[in-house]
Amino acid sequence: MVITSREYAGKYDVQCRGNRVKRQASFIKDIYGDKVKTVAMNWYKWMPLNWQTQILPNKTNGLSANGKFDAAFELTNCNPMGFNLADSPFGDDEYDYPYDNNLKWQDVFDGFIFHEPYYNIIGKAGFPTKITTKQSKEYIKRIIIYDKAYNDKKEARLLKWFGWIYKYILKKEYRNERTFPCYEIYENHKEWKSEMNRWMENK
């Protein structure tokens, strides 16, 4: 079983900007086949903030199915639960991540877990110790691989040329250990609760 936040899992490869991108669960399923079940944790309809303005301006961060998933969780008083997506009220909803695939949630995941309401999810960044030069170089190397996979050649070139600058910024930034409510990093987060409430009003 693979349990993860949504952007790193899924039974299917995704298409993004003309590139076929293999996901974490897809590699595992190639080896173990139907023995593997993929289960998503409740999370946002997430994509990198720079994608929202530069790469996929017609997509946005927000709640899944415009708040439908979160409204259902809220109506249970946020009691943690898990369920199979097939034959559920959510399985036929569009998989609304920023990819070109025309998929439904049950096409991508076998199950779903509600564990915390979106407004309680806390992010943590930074480390209690300094990042070494070797670690920061490895991090940049992996970002370049990521950018190439998503056909972001410009960003990959910039990192290759100016990675030494980013390495310095990275070491400084990750020295600063901090926590924060995840949703607050999104400019449109104030609209999310209204979306969720509309579903609850129409229950």
Structure in words:
The protein has helices at 24-32, 49-55, 68-75, 105-108, 133-149, 153-173, 189-201; strands at residues 2-4, 14-16, 19-21, 38-41, 81-84, 111-114, 122-125, 178-181. With 203 residues, the chain is α/β, with parallel strands linked by helices. The strands form 3 sheets. A 4-stranded mixed beta sheet has the order 1-4-6-5, with no helix packed on it. It has a two-stranded antiparallel sheet with strand order 2-3. A two-stranded antiparallel ribbon has the order 7-8. A hairpin with a 2-residue loop joins β2 (14-16) and β3 (19-21). The chain is globular.
List keywords for this structure.
203 residues; four-stranded mixed sheet; 2 domains; alpha/beta; two-stranded antiparallel ribbon
Q: Which spans have pLDDT < 50 for at least 5 consecutive residues?
A: none
Structure annotation, total helices = 7
Helix content: 25-40%
Total count of strands: 8
Biggest sheet details: 4 strands, mixed
- Taking the alpha carbons of the first and last residues, their distance comes to 33 Å
- Strand proportion, as a percent range, falls in 5-15%
Helix-strand pattern: EEEHEHHEHEEHHEH
Task: Put the structure in a nutshell.
Helix content is 39%, strand content 14%.
How is the topology of this model organized?
Elements: E1 2-4, E2 14-16, E3 19-21, H1 24-32, E4 38-41, H2 49-55, H3 68-75, E5 81-84, H4 105-108, E6 111-114, E7 122-125, H5 133-149, H6 153-173, E8 178-181, H7 189-201
Parallel strand pairs: 1-4, 4-6
Antiparallel strand pairs: 2-3, 5-6, 7-8
